[in-house]
Amino acid sequence: MTARPQQPEPFVRGWVFAPAGTVAYPRLHPQESDQVPGDVWSAATLPVGVRIEVVGDATAVRLRYRTTTADLGYRGDGAGCTFVVFRSGRRIAEAPAVLGDGEVVLPLVGDPDQPAVIYLPEGMRPVVHQIQPVDGSLRPAPRQPRCLIYGDAVTQGWLASSPVGSWSTVVGRTLGLDVCNMGYAGTTRLEPAVAQMMARTPAEAVVVAVGTGCWSKPPHSTALLVEELRSFLQLVRAGHARVPLVVMSPTCRPAAEDTPNVFGATLTDLRRAVEDVVTDLATSDNRLALIDGSAVLGPEELADGTYPDDEGHKRIAAAVRKVLVPRGEEMRQAAVARWQEEMLANTPAYAHMVQAPKPPVPARAKASGPATAVPVGPGPAPDVVAGVADASGPVIAAPVGPDPAAGPATPAGPAAPIAGPAGPAPAPAPVSVAPRPPGEPVRGGAGPGGAAAGRRSGDDPVGPTSGDGNDRASEPGDLPDVPEAIAAAARVTAAAAEAYAAATTRGLVLGAVPA
């Protein structure tokens, strides 16, 4: 029996790998489970960041699920024991989960064309068995550019008051990214097997946040950290040659800043080692960015003197957003190109074209017009609701007060998501087979050495992504000398691309069922 039912699959986000035994949503490829220490695999079995995303006019969604544990560990309720729904940047519903088999009905207020994101009670290790709309229909939300985030306990979400407040979740929600969380609490050893797995996983951005745990669990010398981090980043970059790669050095940990560990290294020493490695690699990599972790948090944003509270997680998210926002259009275009390649690979008539080596493109191939990002602004602010248990049936959510985790609004308003709005998607650009013309700049990126967030940035407003269109696809009509097989792939019509998008993101529509 499979650990993960098929019916909800098109709606699930934040996962990449197939189920492994009883593990429904592993955050590490099962093939790597015997190449990493057991505690890494154990941390990877927790479905951190896994969520359901839907659009449609249903008034509510009914989930049937099963949870397998009530042991929430050190984080307590902060590990996740409720279902939480966000839409248009606002929390609109919350309901508690039960141990074992359960059913919950969550209201879906707000704009039906905006994605509703349903965060799971991840601390209870849930498996969603069925999704049903109430009084309407639902379909999977449009796909988004993927961002892999690797790190330690802070990346896994310690000690946000709930999973929806962790910095990686905030980054995904505010930038319209499909974040896959690869934070493994207490086990960050920068294993080559993990780096190779990340290199093989398609993505449009990668964030690496390490070093805080390297002071003690497991302890590192500066020399060991330098060699491990350099090798890790080089392996990741080998599989993601052109994506933004962001590295954040250790955040504040007062007890460790000037205290030597068993190898004589203070956290200040380890932070300097991380920054030296990134600075050195960035001399030949202008898509590599550095965030100074010591400038992001202060002791007042630590929940227990080690791990950040909700405000601390918001500040980390703001620092990462500041680096990724200028790359927004670049990531969007890269995602469209990846989806087009997937379309070709999954279309028998074109599959051999994707695998065939591409010959040099004639110099006279010219670029098409700019592709413009379609920002999604904030929707109306619906009532904020939280859940109450109804002993006679499924859990039904009911209204409550404002969301304390939402934080103050910045003057510029919420960041515009990278992905376009739900509903009929714009036709993807043709498959690009032409190289960038010599000397043409890549817009939206940092200069040599990447971007460095060297100051506290929790209050920095984040504006919409760049859409100046300098990353342009070639026009297939300008490729007369390219072999017909490749030219045919480049001439895939917008209708075919739209059909693939429908099959993967909007084709499955769940009809109305009785409330």
Based on the model shown, name its key terms.
12 helices, 6-stranded parallel β-sheet, globular, alpha/beta, 515 residues
How is this structure best described in words?
- A hairpin with a 2-residue loop joins strand 4 and strand 5.
- The chain contains twelve helices and 17 strands.
- Helices cover 24% and strands 17% of the residues.
- Helix 3 (167-175) crosses helix 8.
- The strands form three sheets. Strands 1, 2, 4, 5, 7 and 9 form a six-stranded antiparallel beta sheet that branches. A six-stranded parallel beta sheet has the order 11-10-12-13-14-17, sandwiched between helices.
- The model is unreliable at 351-507 (pLDDT under 50).
- By secondary structure, the protein is of the alpha/beta class.
